[in-house]
Design brief:
Blueprint (H helix, E strand, L loop, with lengths): L1 E2 L9 H4 L4 E3 L2 E3 L6 E6 L4 E7 L3 H16 L7 H17 L1 H12 L3 H4 L2 H13 L7 E2 L9 E9 L2 E5 L5 H4 L1 H10 L2 E5 L6 H13 L6 E3 L4 H10 L5 E5 L2 H10 L6 E5 L5 E4 L5 H13 L11 E5 H16 L2 E2 L15 H17 L1 E4 L17 E4 L6 H4 L6 E7 L2 H9 L3 E2 L1 E5 L3 H10 L4 E4 L11 E2 L1 E2 L2 E2 L1 E2 L1 H6 L2 E9 L2
Parallel strand pairs: 1-15, 8-9, 8-11, 9-10, 11-12, 13-14, 13-20, 14-18, 17-18, 20-21
Antiparallel strand pairs: 2-3, 4-5, 6-7, 7-26, 12-24, 16-17, 19-23, 22-25
Helix pairs in contact: 2-10, 3-6, 3-8, 3-9, 4-9, 6-8, 12-13
This protein binds NADP nicotinamide-adenine-dinucleotide phosphate and magnesium ion.
Magnesium ion binds next to strand 4 and helix 4.
Length: about 500
Protein backbone atom coordinates (compact mmCIF):
# COMPACT_ATOMS: atom_id res chain seq x y z
CA UNK A 1 0.00 0.00 0.00
CA UNK A 2 1.27 3.45 -0.91
CA UNK A 3 0.13 6.80 0.28
CA UNK A 4 -0.35 9.17 -2.63
CA UNK A 5 1.34 12.51 -3.24
CA UNK A 6 0.66 15.08 -5.91
CA UNK A 7 -0.69 18.53 -6.71
CA UNK A 8 -3.96 19.62 -5.12
CA UNK A 9 -6.69 21.18 -7.31
CA UNK A 10 -8.28 24.43 -6.10
CA UNK A 11 -11.46 24.20 -4.03
CA UNK A 12 -14.52 25.24 -6.12
CA UNK A 13 -16.08 28.60 -5.10
CA UNK A 14 -19.35 26.77 -4.54
CA UNK A 15 -17.97 25.18 -1.37
CA UNK A 16 -17.58 28.49 0.46
CA UNK A 17 -20.95 29.86 -0.72
CA UNK A 18 -24.19 29.90 1.27
CA UNK A 19 -26.15 26.63 1.16
CA UNK A 20 -29.92 26.84 1.36
CA UNK A 21 -32.92 24.69 0.52
CA UNK A 22 -34.39 24.57 -2.98
CA UNK A 23 -38.16 24.96 -2.63
CA UNK A 24 -40.50 25.96 -5.45
CA UNK A 25 -37.61 27.15 -7.61
CA UNK A 26 -36.14 29.46 -4.95
CA UNK A 27 -33.22 29.04 -2.60
CA UNK A 28 -34.55 29.65 0.90
CA UNK A 29 -33.43 29.49 4.52
CA UNK A 30 -34.64 26.54 6.63
CA UNK A 31 -37.37 27.30 9.17
CA UNK A 32 -34.97 26.28 11.95
CA UNK A 33 -32.45 28.93 10.90
CA UNK A 34 -29.85 26.29 11.79
CA UNK A 35 -27.00 24.71 9.90
CA UNK A 36 -25.11 21.42 9.89
CA UNK A 37 -21.31 21.28 9.68
CA UNK A 38 -19.84 19.58 6.62
CA UNK A 39 -16.54 17.81 7.32
CA UNK A 40 -13.87 16.83 4.83
CA UNK A 41 -13.18 13.21 5.79
CA UNK A 42 -9.64 13.33 4.41
CA UNK A 43 -8.64 16.01 6.93
CA UNK A 44 -11.28 15.86 9.65
CA UNK A 45 -11.68 19.64 9.15
CA UNK A 46 -14.90 21.59 8.70
CA UNK A 47 -15.42 22.40 5.03
CA UNK A 48 -18.62 24.49 5.14
CA UNK A 49 -22.18 24.28 6.40
CA UNK A 50 -25.49 23.14 4.93
CA UNK A 51 -29.01 24.08 5.98
CA UNK A 52 -30.80 22.02 8.59
CA UNK A 53 -34.19 21.50 7.01
CA UNK A 54 -37.01 19.94 9.02
CA UNK A 55 -40.70 19.05 8.90
CA UNK A 56 -41.88 22.60 8.15
CA UNK A 57 -39.53 22.87 5.17
CA UNK A 58 -40.59 19.44 3.92
CA UNK A 59 -44.20 20.64 4.12
CA UNK A 60 -43.41 23.65 1.95
CA UNK A 61 -41.38 21.57 -0.49
CA UNK A 62 -44.12 18.95 -0.87
CA UNK A 63 -46.70 21.71 -1.45
CA UNK A 64 -44.44 23.23 -4.13
CA UNK A 65 -43.96 19.82 -5.75
CA UNK A 66 -47.74 19.25 -5.77
CA UNK A 67 -48.43 22.64 -7.35
CA UNK A 68 -45.79 21.96 -9.99
CA UNK A 69 -47.17 18.49 -10.68
CA UNK A 70 -50.64 19.86 -11.29
CA UNK A 71 -49.47 22.94 -13.14
CA UNK A 72 -47.79 23.66 -16.44
CA UNK A 73 -45.35 20.74 -16.04
CA UNK A 74 -48.24 18.28 -16.52
CA UNK A 75 -48.68 19.65 -20.05
CA UNK A 76 -45.06 19.27 -21.08
CA UNK A 77 -44.74 16.92 -24.02
CA UNK A 78 -42.36 13.96 -23.99
CA UNK A 79 -40.20 15.84 -26.47
CA UNK A 80 -39.94 18.87 -24.16
CA UNK A 81 -38.94 16.66 -21.23
CA UNK A 82 -36.40 14.84 -23.40
CA UNK A 83 -34.87 18.14 -24.51
CA UNK A 84 -34.67 19.22 -20.88
CA UNK A 85 -32.91 15.99 -19.85
CA UNK A 86 -30.44 16.36 -22.71
CA UNK A 87 -29.77 19.97 -21.71
CA UNK A 88 -29.16 18.81 -18.13
CA UNK A 89 -26.84 16.17 -19.58
CA UNK A 90 -24.74 18.79 -21.37
CA UNK A 91 -24.64 21.21 -18.45
CA UNK A 92 -23.74 18.56 -15.89
CA UNK A 93 -21.02 17.14 -18.12
CA UNK A 94 -19.61 20.63 -18.70
CA UNK A 95 -19.33 21.06 -14.92
CA UNK A 96 -18.15 17.55 -14.16
CA UNK A 97 -14.67 18.48 -12.99
CA UNK A 98 -16.18 20.83 -10.41
CA UNK A 99 -18.75 18.21 -9.36
CA UNK A 100 -16.08 15.53 -9.00
CA UNK A 101 -14.02 17.83 -6.78
CA UNK A 102 -17.01 18.74 -4.63
CA UNK A 103 -17.88 15.06 -4.15
CA UNK A 104 -14.28 14.18 -3.24
CA UNK A 105 -14.06 16.99 -0.67
CA UNK A 106 -17.45 16.15 0.82
CA UNK A 107 -17.44 12.36 1.13
CA UNK A 108 -13.86 11.32 0.44
CA UNK A 109 -14.12 9.20 -2.72
CA UNK A 110 -10.94 9.85 -4.69
CA UNK A 111 -10.91 11.98 -7.82
CA UNK A 112 -9.89 8.86 -9.73
CA UNK A 113 -13.39 7.56 -8.92
CA UNK A 114 -15.49 10.73 -8.96
CA UNK A 115 -14.00 11.95 -12.26
CA UNK A 116 -14.50 8.43 -13.60
CA UNK A 117 -18.28 8.79 -13.10
CA UNK A 118 -18.53 11.27 -15.98
CA UNK A 119 -19.14 8.67 -18.67
CA UNK A 120 -21.61 6.81 -16.48
CA UNK A 121 -23.49 10.06 -15.77
CA UNK A 122 -23.69 10.66 -19.50
CA UNK A 123 -25.15 7.19 -19.96
CA UNK A 124 -27.68 7.47 -17.17
CA UNK A 125 -28.99 10.85 -18.36
CA UNK A 126 -29.17 9.74 -21.97
CA UNK A 127 -30.95 6.59 -20.89
CA UNK A 128 -33.64 8.50 -18.97
CA UNK A 129 -33.92 11.00 -21.83
CA UNK A 130 -34.69 8.03 -24.07
CA UNK A 131 -37.58 7.03 -21.76
CA UNK A 132 -39.66 10.19 -22.02
CA UNK A 133 -42.27 8.47 -24.17
CA UNK A 134 -42.90 5.85 -21.49
CA UNK A 135 -46.01 7.62 -20.17
CA UNK A 136 -48.00 6.43 -23.16
CA UNK A 137 -51.42 5.07 -23.88
CA UNK A 138 -52.05 1.68 -25.47
CA UNK A 139 -55.27 0.32 -26.93
CA UNK A 140 -55.53 -3.26 -25.66
CA UNK A 141 -58.09 -5.53 -27.25
CA UNK A 142 -61.16 -6.36 -25.20
CA UNK A 143 -63.80 -9.12 -25.24
CA UNK A 144 -66.64 -7.08 -23.84
CA UNK A 145 -70.14 -7.64 -25.24
CA UNK A 146 -71.04 -4.65 -27.39
CA UNK A 147 -68.65 -2.19 -28.94
CA UNK A 148 -66.02 -0.88 -26.61
CA UNK A 149 -62.73 0.86 -27.11
CA UNK A 150 -60.33 0.24 -24.26
CA UNK A 151 -57.40 2.55 -23.57
CA UNK A 152 -54.66 1.93 -21.11
CA UNK A 153 -52.70 4.97 -19.98
CA UNK A 154 -49.53 5.03 -17.98
CA UNK A 155 -49.71 8.17 -15.86
CA UNK A 156 -47.09 9.74 -13.56
CA UNK A 157 -47.63 8.78 -9.90
CA UNK A 158 -47.22 12.37 -8.68
CA UNK A 159 -44.88 13.68 -6.00
CA UNK A 160 -41.90 11.42 -5.36
CA UNK A 161 -39.87 11.73 -2.17
CA UNK A 162 -36.27 10.67 -2.62
CA UNK A 163 -34.04 9.74 0.30
CA UNK A 164 -30.45 8.78 -0.53
CA UNK A 165 -27.32 7.81 1.42
CA UNK A 166 -23.86 9.40 1.50
CA UNK A 167 -21.83 6.78 -0.29
CA UNK A 168 -22.43 8.07 -3.82
CA UNK A 169 -24.85 10.99 -4.19
CA UNK A 170 -23.40 11.77 -7.62
CA UNK A 171 -24.86 8.43 -8.69
CA UNK A 172 -27.83 8.19 -6.33
CA UNK A 173 -29.57 11.45 -7.24
CA UNK A 174 -30.08 10.40 -10.87
CA UNK A 175 -32.08 7.37 -9.77
CA UNK A 176 -34.61 9.93 -8.43
CA UNK A 177 -34.35 12.89 -10.80
CA UNK A 178 -33.92 10.77 -13.96
CA UNK A 179 -37.16 8.76 -13.90
CA UNK A 180 -39.08 11.69 -12.34
CA UNK A 181 -38.15 14.09 -15.15
CA UNK A 182 -38.68 11.40 -17.80
CA UNK A 183 -42.20 10.60 -16.62
CA UNK A 184 -43.50 14.02 -15.52
CA UNK A 185 -43.41 13.40 -11.77
CA UNK A 186 -42.12 16.03 -9.34
CA UNK A 187 -39.68 15.42 -6.50
CA UNK A 188 -38.51 16.38 -3.05
CA UNK A 189 -35.04 15.00 -2.40
CA UNK A 190 -33.47 14.58 1.03
CA UNK A 191 -29.77 13.80 0.58
CA UNK A 192 -27.66 12.42 3.44
CA UNK A 193 -26.33 15.04 5.82
CA UNK A 194 -22.82 13.60 5.32
CA UNK A 195 -22.87 14.18 1.55
CA UNK A 196 -25.24 16.85 0.28
CA UNK A 197 -22.91 19.19 -1.59
CA UNK A 198 -22.90 17.61 -5.05
CA UNK A 199 -26.70 17.33 -4.87
CA UNK A 200 -26.97 21.06 -4.08
CA UNK A 201 -24.61 22.05 -6.89
CA UNK A 202 -26.43 19.83 -9.39
CA UNK A 203 -29.73 21.35 -8.28
CA UNK A 204 -28.37 24.79 -9.21
CA UNK A 205 -27.53 23.36 -12.63
CA UNK A 206 -31.02 21.88 -12.97
CA UNK A 207 -32.53 25.32 -12.40
CA UNK A 208 -30.08 26.80 -14.90
CA UNK A 209 -31.08 24.12 -17.43
CA UNK A 210 -34.71 25.24 -17.14
CA UNK A 211 -36.34 22.71 -14.80
CA UNK A 212 -39.62 24.49 -13.92
CA UNK A 213 -40.11 25.82 -10.38
CA UNK A 214 -41.14 23.12 -7.92
CA UNK A 215 -40.41 20.16 -10.18
CA UNK A 216 -37.21 19.45 -8.24
CA UNK A 217 -36.99 20.46 -4.58
CA UNK A 218 -34.11 19.70 -2.23
CA UNK A 219 -34.32 19.71 1.55
CA UNK A 220 -31.04 18.99 3.32
CA UNK A 221 -31.16 17.92 6.96
CA UNK A 222 -31.07 14.96 9.28
CA UNK A 223 -32.84 11.71 8.51
CA UNK A 224 -34.65 11.61 11.82
CA UNK A 225 -36.47 14.90 11.14
CA UNK A 226 -36.38 15.94 7.45
CA UNK A 227 -36.23 12.32 6.21
CA UNK A 228 -38.91 11.07 8.56
CA UNK A 229 -41.19 14.01 7.70
CA UNK A 230 -40.85 13.23 4.00
CA UNK A 231 -41.54 9.52 4.49
CA UNK A 232 -44.65 10.30 6.56
CA UNK A 233 -46.02 13.12 4.42
CA UNK A 234 -49.51 12.52 3.05
CA UNK A 235 -48.73 14.72 0.06
CA UNK A 236 -46.04 12.31 -1.15
CA UNK A 237 -47.24 9.55 -3.48
CA UNK A 238 -44.10 7.47 -3.63
CA UNK A 239 -40.85 7.24 -1.68
CA UNK A 240 -37.71 6.01 -3.36
CA UNK A 241 -35.28 5.15 -0.59
CA UNK A 242 -31.70 3.95 -0.65
CA UNK A 243 -30.05 3.18 2.66
CA UNK A 244 -29.97 0.76 5.53
CA UNK A 245 -32.45 -1.93 6.57
CA UNK A 246 -33.12 -0.20 9.91
CA UNK A 247 -34.15 3.05 8.26
CA UNK A 248 -36.15 1.13 5.64
CA UNK A 249 -38.26 -0.39 8.42
CA UNK A 250 -39.14 3.03 9.76
CA UNK A 251 -39.93 4.22 6.22
CA UNK A 252 -42.27 1.27 5.68
CA UNK A 253 -44.07 2.21 8.89
CA UNK A 254 -44.13 5.89 7.95
CA UNK A 255 -45.65 5.05 4.57
CA UNK A 256 -48.74 3.51 6.17
CA UNK A 257 -50.63 6.82 6.60
CA UNK A 258 -51.48 7.34 2.93
CA UNK A 259 -50.27 3.90 1.75
CA UNK A 260 -47.59 5.50 -0.39
CA UNK A 261 -45.70 3.42 -2.90
CA UNK A 262 -42.18 2.44 -1.92
CA UNK A 263 -38.95 1.54 -3.59
CA UNK A 264 -36.32 0.22 -1.17
CA UNK A 265 -32.71 -0.32 -2.18
CA UNK A 266 -30.88 -1.56 0.87
CA UNK A 267 -27.66 -3.18 1.94
CA UNK A 268 -26.00 -6.50 1.35
CA UNK A 269 -23.39 -9.03 2.36
CA UNK A 270 -22.78 -10.21 -1.15
CA UNK A 271 -20.94 -13.44 -1.92
CA UNK A 272 -18.18 -13.44 -4.53
CA UNK A 273 -17.36 -17.07 -5.37
CA UNK A 274 -13.90 -18.01 -6.67
CA UNK A 275 -13.60 -21.53 -8.08
CA UNK A 276 -10.25 -23.34 -8.25
CA UNK A 277 -10.35 -23.22 -12.06
CA UNK A 278 -10.69 -19.40 -12.12
CA UNK A 279 -8.05 -17.21 -13.73
CA UNK A 280 -6.56 -15.89 -10.49
CA UNK A 281 -4.76 -13.09 -12.35
CA UNK A 282 -8.22 -11.64 -12.92
CA UNK A 283 -10.09 -13.02 -9.90
CA UNK A 284 -7.67 -11.66 -7.28
CA UNK A 285 -7.79 -7.96 -8.27
CA UNK A 286 -11.42 -8.32 -9.38
CA UNK A 287 -12.65 -9.75 -6.09
CA UNK A 288 -10.41 -7.43 -4.04
CA UNK A 289 -11.71 -4.29 -5.74
CA UNK A 290 -15.21 -5.78 -5.50
CA UNK A 291 -14.80 -5.18 -1.76
CA UNK A 292 -12.50 -2.16 -1.56
CA UNK A 293 -13.92 0.16 -4.24
CA UNK A 294 -15.10 3.41 -2.62
CA UNK A 295 -13.34 2.17 0.54
CA UNK A 296 -15.94 -0.59 0.84
CA UNK A 297 -18.82 1.88 1.07
CA UNK A 298 -20.75 0.23 -1.73
CA UNK A 299 -24.08 -1.53 -1.32
CA UNK A 300 -23.14 -4.33 -3.73
CA UNK A 301 -19.64 -4.88 -2.27
CA UNK A 302 -18.68 -8.57 -2.53
CA UNK A 303 -17.55 -8.73 1.08
CA UNK A 304 -17.85 -12.49 1.49
CA UNK A 305 -15.23 -13.93 -0.82
CA UNK A 306 -15.91 -17.67 -0.99
CA UNK A 307 -12.81 -19.44 -2.27
CA UNK A 308 -12.53 -23.12 -3.17
CA UNK A 309 -10.42 -24.72 -0.46
CA UNK A 310 -7.64 -25.99 -2.77
CA UNK A 311 -6.74 -22.40 -3.79
CA UNK A 312 -7.73 -20.57 -0.59
CA UNK A 313 -4.21 -20.02 0.75
CA UNK A 314 -2.77 -19.04 -2.61
CA UNK A 315 -5.70 -16.67 -3.18
CA UNK A 316 -5.24 -15.01 0.21
CA UNK A 317 -1.52 -14.58 -0.33
CA UNK A 318 -2.03 -13.04 -3.76
CA UNK A 319 -4.83 -10.84 -2.50
CA UNK A 320 -2.55 -9.54 0.27
CA UNK A 321 0.16 -8.77 -2.31
CA UNK A 322 -2.37 -6.98 -4.49
CA UNK A 323 -3.73 -5.03 -1.54
CA UNK A 324 -0.26 -3.70 -0.78
CA UNK A 325 -0.18 -2.03 -4.20
CA UNK A 326 -3.41 -0.06 -3.57
CA UNK A 327 -2.79 3.65 -3.05
CA UNK A 328 -4.77 4.96 -0.07
CA UNK A 329 -4.74 8.69 0.61
CA UNK A 330 -6.38 12.06 0.14
CA UNK A 331 -8.69 11.71 -2.82
CA UNK A 332 -7.52 15.05 -4.22
CA UNK A 333 -4.31 13.32 -5.30
CA UNK A 334 -5.17 11.96 -8.75
CA UNK A 335 -3.11 8.81 -8.06
CA UNK A 336 -5.12 7.88 -4.98
CA UNK A 337 -7.21 4.74 -5.45
CA UNK A 338 -8.95 4.62 -2.06
CA UNK A 339 -9.94 7.63 0.02
CA UNK A 340 -11.06 7.88 3.64
CA UNK A 341 -14.30 6.61 5.11
CA UNK A 342 -17.05 9.21 5.04
CA UNK A 343 -17.09 10.19 8.73
CA UNK A 344 -15.62 9.59 12.13
CA UNK A 345 -18.72 7.60 13.01
CA UNK A 346 -18.19 5.29 10.04
CA UNK A 347 -14.50 4.97 10.96
CA UNK A 348 -15.44 3.89 14.48
CA UNK A 349 -17.96 1.40 13.13
CA UNK A 350 -15.42 -0.17 10.76
CA UNK A 351 -12.66 -0.28 13.41
CA UNK A 352 -15.12 -1.96 15.77
CA UNK A 353 -15.79 -4.70 13.20
CA UNK A 354 -12.08 -5.13 12.53
CA UNK A 355 -11.64 -5.69 16.28
CA UNK A 356 -14.45 -8.27 16.26
CA UNK A 357 -12.92 -9.96 13.19
CA UNK A 358 -9.54 -10.21 14.90
CA UNK A 359 -11.16 -12.39 17.56
CA UNK A 360 -12.99 -14.55 15.01
CA UNK A 361 -10.78 -15.12 11.97
CA UNK A 362 -7.15 -14.82 10.83
CA UNK A 363 -6.10 -11.26 9.99
CA UNK A 364 -4.19 -11.73 6.74
CA UNK A 365 -3.66 -8.09 5.72
CA UNK A 366 -4.39 -4.52 6.80
CA UNK A 367 -6.44 -4.00 9.93
CA UNK A 368 -5.21 -0.54 10.93
CA UNK A 369 -6.31 3.03 10.86
CA UNK A 370 -3.72 5.02 8.93
CA UNK A 371 -1.50 7.42 10.82
CA UNK A 372 1.27 9.83 9.84
CA UNK A 373 0.07 12.60 7.58
CA UNK A 374 -3.29 10.86 7.24
CA UNK A 375 -3.90 10.65 10.99
CA UNK A 376 -6.47 13.46 11.09
CA UNK A 377 -8.57 11.86 8.32
CA UNK A 378 -10.73 8.74 8.52
CA UNK A 379 -8.47 6.29 6.68
CA UNK A 380 -8.44 2.51 7.12
CA UNK A 381 -6.16 0.00 5.41
CA UNK A 382 -7.77 -2.49 3.05
CA UNK A 383 -8.25 -5.46 5.36
CA UNK A 384 -8.43 -9.22 4.75
CA UNK A 385 -9.72 -11.83 7.15
CA UNK A 386 -8.87 -15.35 5.97
CA UNK A 387 -10.09 -18.80 7.04
CA UNK A 388 -13.35 -17.11 8.01
CA UNK A 389 -16.65 -18.92 8.34
CA UNK A 390 -20.09 -17.81 7.33
CA UNK A 391 -21.31 -17.82 10.93
CA UNK A 392 -18.88 -15.13 12.04
CA UNK A 393 -20.15 -11.62 12.74
CA UNK A 394 -17.83 -10.19 10.06
CA UNK A 395 -19.45 -12.53 7.52
CA UNK A 396 -23.03 -11.79 8.56
CA UNK A 397 -23.22 -8.06 9.18
CA UNK A 398 -22.75 -5.31 6.64
CA UNK A 399 -19.59 -3.40 7.66
CA UNK A 400 -19.57 -0.81 4.87
CA UNK A 401 -15.80 -0.45 4.98
CA UNK A 402 -12.73 -1.98 3.28
CA UNK A 403 -13.00 -5.33 5.03
CA UNK A 404 -13.08 -8.70 3.23
CA UNK A 405 -13.90 -12.05 4.78
CA UNK A 406 -12.39 -14.94 2.80
CA UNK A 407 -14.32 -18.14 3.44
CA UNK A 408 -13.20 -21.55 2.12
CA UNK A 409 -15.68 -23.97 0.48
CA UNK A 410 -15.43 -27.49 -0.95
CA UNK A 411 -17.77 -27.90 -3.94
CA UNK A 412 -20.36 -25.90 -5.92
CA UNK A 413 -23.26 -27.06 -3.69
CA UNK A 414 -21.31 -25.98 -0.63
CA UNK A 415 -20.56 -22.61 -2.27
CA UNK A 416 -24.22 -21.99 -3.08
CA UNK A 417 -25.38 -23.00 0.37
CA UNK A 418 -22.95 -20.51 1.93
CA UNK A 419 -23.69 -17.83 -0.66
CA UNK A 420 -27.42 -17.92 0.08
CA UNK A 421 -27.07 -18.27 3.84
CA UNK A 422 -27.60 -14.54 4.45
CA UNK A 423 -30.65 -12.36 5.04
CA UNK A 424 -29.59 -10.20 2.08
CA UNK A 425 -30.02 -10.70 -1.67
CA UNK A 426 -28.45 -7.75 -3.43
CA UNK A 427 -25.60 -9.12 -5.55
CA UNK A 428 -23.10 -11.90 -6.07
CA UNK A 429 -20.12 -12.88 -8.17
CA UNK A 430 -18.70 -16.04 -9.76
CA UNK A 431 -15.14 -16.55 -11.01
CA UNK A 432 -14.65 -19.69 -13.09
CA UNK A 433 -13.52 -20.79 -16.54
CA UNK A 434 -16.20 -23.46 -16.66
CA UNK A 435 -19.30 -22.37 -18.58
CA UNK A 436 -21.57 -24.84 -16.87
CA UNK A 437 -20.41 -23.79 -13.38
CA UNK A 438 -20.87 -20.13 -14.34
CA UNK A 439 -24.48 -20.72 -15.43
CA UNK A 440 -25.47 -23.06 -12.63
CA UNK A 441 -24.00 -20.96 -9.87
CA UNK A 442 -25.20 -17.60 -11.17
CA UNK A 443 -28.68 -19.10 -11.46
CA UNK A 444 -28.41 -20.52 -7.96
CA UNK A 445 -27.46 -17.30 -6.17
CA UNK A 446 -30.52 -15.59 -4.71
CA UNK A 447 -29.72 -11.98 -5.57
CA UNK A 448 -30.84 -9.19 -7.87
CA UNK A 449 -27.52 -9.01 -9.74
CA UNK A 450 -24.82 -11.61 -10.42
CA UNK A 451 -21.50 -10.88 -12.10
CA UNK A 452 -19.44 -13.59 -13.80
CA UNK A 453 -15.69 -13.01 -14.17
CA UNK A 454 -16.17 -9.34 -13.32
CA UNK A 455 -17.66 -7.40 -10.44
CA UNK A 456 -19.70 -4.25 -10.01
CA UNK A 457 -20.24 -3.16 -13.63
CA UNK A 458 -23.58 -1.41 -14.13
CA UNK A 459 -25.39 -0.29 -17.26
CA UNK A 460 -28.36 2.00 -16.50
CA UNK A 461 -30.28 0.46 -19.39
CA UNK A 462 -29.99 -2.97 -17.74
CA UNK A 463 -30.26 -1.86 -14.12
CA UNK A 464 -29.98 -3.57 -10.78
CA UNK A 465 -32.06 -4.29 -7.69
CA UNK A 466 -32.36 -6.54 -4.69
CA UNK A 467 -34.40 -9.31 -3.15
CA UNK A 468 -34.85 -10.60 0.43
CA UNK A 469 -33.76 -7.94 2.93
CA UNK A 470 -31.88 -5.99 0.28
CA UNK A 471 -35.24 -4.45 -0.60
CA UNK A 472 -37.39 -4.25 -3.70
CA UNK A 473 -37.71 -2.22 -6.85
CA UNK A 474 -35.37 -1.96 -9.82
CA UNK A 475 -33.01 0.90 -10.59
CA UNK A 476 -32.41 1.61 -14.24
CA UNK A 477 -34.08 0.01 -17.27
CA UNK A 478 -37.73 0.30 -18.20
CA UNK A 479 -38.87 -1.24 -14.89
CA UNK A 480 -37.56 1.80 -13.05
CA UNK A 481 -39.40 4.21 -15.31
CA UNK A 482 -42.60 2.16 -15.03
CA UNK A 483 -42.41 2.33 -11.25
CA UNK A 484 -42.86 6.13 -11.51
CA UNK A 485 -46.08 5.52 -13.46
CA UNK A 486 -49.41 3.92 -12.64
CA UNK A 487 -51.68 2.15 -15.10
CA UNK A 488 -55.12 3.57 -15.75
CA UNK A 489 -57.78 1.96 -17.92
CA UNK A 490 -60.46 3.88 -19.84
CA UNK A 491 -63.49 1.98 -21.22
CA UNK A 492 -65.34 3.83 -23.99
CA UNK A 493 -68.74 2.60 -25.09
CA UNK A 494 -68.84 3.36 -28.81
CA UNK A 495 -72.55 2.54 -29.25
P1 LIG B 1 -29.19 5.22 6.39
O1 LIG B 1 -28.74 5.56 7.75
O2 LIG B 1 -30.37 4.34 6.25
O3 LIG B 1 -29.40 6.62 5.65
C1 LIG B 1 -29.87 6.71 4.34
C2 LIG B 1 -30.70 7.98 4.21
O4 LIG B 1 -31.85 7.89 5.04
C3 LIG B 1 -29.97 9.24 4.64
O5 LIG B 1 -30.35 10.31 3.83
C4 LIG B 1 -30.48 9.43 6.04
O6 LIG B 1 -30.35 10.75 6.51
C5 LIG B 1 -31.92 9.03 5.89
N1 LIG B 1 -32.62 8.65 7.12
C6 LIG B 1 -32.08 8.26 8.30
N2 LIG B 1 -33.08 8.00 9.19
C7 LIG B 1 -34.25 8.25 8.55
C8 LIG B 1 -35.63 8.15 8.94
N3 LIG B 1 -36.00 7.75 10.14
N4 LIG B 1 -36.57 8.45 8.01
C9 LIG B 1 -36.23 8.83 6.78
N5 LIG B 1 -34.94 8.95 6.35
C10 LIG B 1 -33.97 8.65 7.23
O7 LIG B 1 -28.06 4.54 5.55
P2 LIG B 1 -26.51 4.90 5.60
O8 LIG B 1 -25.92 4.13 6.69
O9 LIG B 1 -26.32 6.36 5.54
O10 LIG B 1 -26.08 4.34 4.18
C11 LIG B 1 -25.53 3.09 4.01
C12 LIG B 1 -26.58 2.06 3.70
O11 LIG B 1 -27.15 2.29 2.42
C13 LIG B 1 -25.97 0.69 3.62
O12 LIG B 1 -26.77 -0.26 4.25
C14 LIG B 1 -25.90 0.42 2.12
O13 LIG B 1 -25.83 -0.90 1.76
C15 LIG B 1 -27.12 1.10 1.64
N6 LIG B 1 -27.01 1.43 0.21
C16 LIG B 1 -27.78 0.72 -0.66
C17 LIG B 1 -27.70 0.97 -2.02
C18 LIG B 1 -28.56 0.20 -2.99
O14 LIG B 1 -28.80 0.70 -4.08
N7 LIG B 1 -29.03 -0.98 -2.66
C19 LIG B 1 -26.84 1.95 -2.50
C20 LIG B 1 -26.06 2.65 -1.58
C21 LIG B 1 -26.17 2.37 -0.22
P3 LIG B 1 -29.05 11.24 7.33
O15 LIG B 1 -27.93 10.34 7.00
O16 LIG B 1 -28.83 12.62 6.83
O17 LIG B 1 -29.41 11.20 8.78
MG1 LIG C 1 -18.50 15.24 4.50
Amino acid sequence: MHTGQGTTPATPDFVAGRKQLLIGGRWVEPASGEGIDVVNPATGQRLCGIARGGAEDVDRAVAAARRAFEGEWSRWTPHQRRKLLLKIHDLVLDHFEELALIETLDMGAPLSRTRGLKEWTSQVLQFFASQCDAATAATPQNSLPGNFLTLKHLAPVGVVGGIIPWNGPLIGLWWIFGPALATGCTTVLKPAEDASLSVLRISELLTEAGVPDGVVNVVTGYGADAGQALAEHDGVDRVAFTGSVGTARSIVRASAGNLKRLQLELGGKSPDIVFADADLDKAVPGAAMGVYTNSGQVCVAGTRILVQRSVHDEFVERMRDFTRTIRVGDGLDPDTQLGPLVSERQLERVMHYIGVGGGEARLAGGGNRLGGELASGFFVEPTIFADASNEMTIAREEIFGPVASVIPFDDPEDALRLANDTPYGLAGGVWTRDLSTAHKVSRGITAGTVWVNCYGVLDPAVGFGGTKMSGYGWKGAREHVDSFLYPKAVYINLD
